[in-house]
Specification:
- The structure holds 2 protein chains of 2 kinds.
- Chain A is built from no helices and 11 strands.
- The mean pLDDT of chain A is 93.
- Helix content of chain A is 0%, strand content 58%.
- In chain A, the strands form 2 sheets. In chain A, strands 2, 4, 5, 6, 9, 10 and 11 form a 7-stranded mixed β-sheet that branches.
- Helix content of chain B is 0%, strand content 52%.
- In chain B, β4 and β5 form a beta hairpin.
- Chain B starts with a strand and ends with a strand.
- Chain B is an all-beta fold.
- Classes of the chains: A mainly beta, B mainly beta.
Chain lengths: 112, 113
């Protein structure tokens, strides 16, 4: 998947616990994104980054935070997981504005 | 607010038939319209994309038709094959939003042998 590694691939956690998902890329792409995929909603953007320490909110950012301290790593944190955050999370990268996105293989997160 | 509406939600086609998936958008600033293909357990992958300066783009068996006045675009898969069975997402973005894409809800395509 274009040099993108998401970890973990699967995670089960309990309501109220913090969770961090990691995205690591080896393509040296500038832009990185976190999406969630839910039936009937397609893919919705959570947060994105346009460079180290430069991040911005997407359309469903409430309850999520991100950090990018290195070009290759983009972390997504759920400070206090809720059942509504049960979803499949995808990281994506792109090299330039409107350039095609490359997606990772996803993380299946279940919040019980 | 869903700015890109996709239909149908699911589609069953016989091998050799034509698969047609439609999308409608609201934001007239959108100027990039890609289609992504997703197989089970995998992330989406870019299939084909179009910009509004052309009304049609063809790559192999896949064609995008674009109607700017109607704010609609569609994906046509000719001679559909079982290997085309996947979920398809349309998407749209504008220069002002950079590469941030707004996705449709997805269409699950099944091509029967």
């Amino acid at each position: 998947d274009a040099g993108i590694t998401q970890s973990p691939r699967h995670k089960v956690t309990e309501t109220g616990t913090p969770v961090t998902l990691r995205c690591h890329q080896t393509e040296n792409h500038r832009y990185m994104y976190w999406y969630r995929q839910d039936p009937g909603h397609g893919l919705r953007l959570i947060h994105y980054s346009y460079g180290v320490k430069d991040t911005d909110k997407g359309e469903v950012s409430d309850g999520y935070s991100v950090s990018r301290s290195k070009t290759e790593d983009f972390l997504l944190t759920l400070e206090s997981a809720t059942s509504s955050q049960t979803s499949v999370y995808f990281c994506a990268i792109s090299g330039a504005l409107n350039e095609k996105l490359f997606f990772g293989s996803g993380t299946q997160l279940s919040v019980l | 607010q869903q700015q890109v509406k996709q239909s149908p939600q699911s589609l069953i086609v016989q091998k050799g038939g034509i698969s047609i998936i439609n999308c409608a958008y609201e934001n007239t600033a959108f100027d990039y319209f890609p289609w992504y293909q997703q197989f089970p357990g995998k992330g989406p992958a870019l299939l084909i994309a179009i910009r509004p300066d052309v009304s049609e783009k063809k790559e192999g068996r896949f064609t995008i038709s674009f109607n700017k006045s109607a704010k609609q675009f569609s994906l046509h898969i000719m001679d559909s094959q079982p290997g085309d069975s996947a979920t398809y997402f349309c998407a749209a973005s504008s220069e002002t939003s950079g590469s941030r894409l707004t996705f449709g809800e997805g269409t699950q395509l099944t091509v029967n042998p």
